[in-house]
Amino acid sequence: MKLYCLSGHPTRPCYILRWKNTTIMLDCGLDMTTVLKFLPLPLVHNARLSSLPVYMPRDSNDSLFEGELRECSGRVFVDSAPEFCPPEFGLVNYSEVDVILISNYLCMTALPYITEHTGFHGIVYATEPTLQIGKLFMEEMLQYIERTPQYKKSSRWKQSDVLKLLPPMLSDSFKPQTWKQCFTAKDLHNCLAKIQAVGFVEKRVGNSK
After folding, report:
1. Does the pLDDT value for residue 96 go beyond 70?
2. Which has the least CB within 10 A, 49, 50, 115, 132?
3. 165-170 contacts: CB < 8 A, separation 24 or more?
4. What's the pLDDT band for 64 if we cut at 50, 70, 90?
5. Rounded CA gap, 65 and 52, in Å?
């Protein structure tokens, strides 16, 4: 038996359990703390946000990097659409995962990234309350981001040669190159359609490979 941890967030877990010829994913939470490194998305136009001073590291002369970061109240933020940290993609082959078991609605938020953008072809199980509350939660998150679109995408700051020059709040970021923007409405719809609802204490029998 082997157990892999694909998430570094304590309350948004994602584990892979390999037992004999069966591979099971236990939850797939999405680390959303990364959005704290981005400028907030105002519901109405905010002149103060749009006029914040641009931040440039003292030792950087990279013109491609200019304008990606802004200063506010002594802190530096990324001026871009917010990004999230999904579970680790390079540790396991998602096409080998037979089933994903979801324990609660907060632990299904990374599901669209897995079912729609990897080779996963297995089964997803969740209870009806988890499915319905998770659906509402992710739809609301997507609607908020779409209501306040930020079309700018900044990525040069993630490069190792630039990252090491930034303040600790950004330089200490965990693998920012793997962060992804929010899933689309199509991704969410297709993902939810793949979830099979099960009752509490209901038993399901599956065939191992």
Report:
1. yes
2. 50
3. 165/57, 165/58, 165/59, 165/60, 166/57, 166/69, 166/76, 167/75, 167/76, 169/37, 169/75, 169/76, 170/37, 170/69, 170/76, 170/78
4. low
5. 16
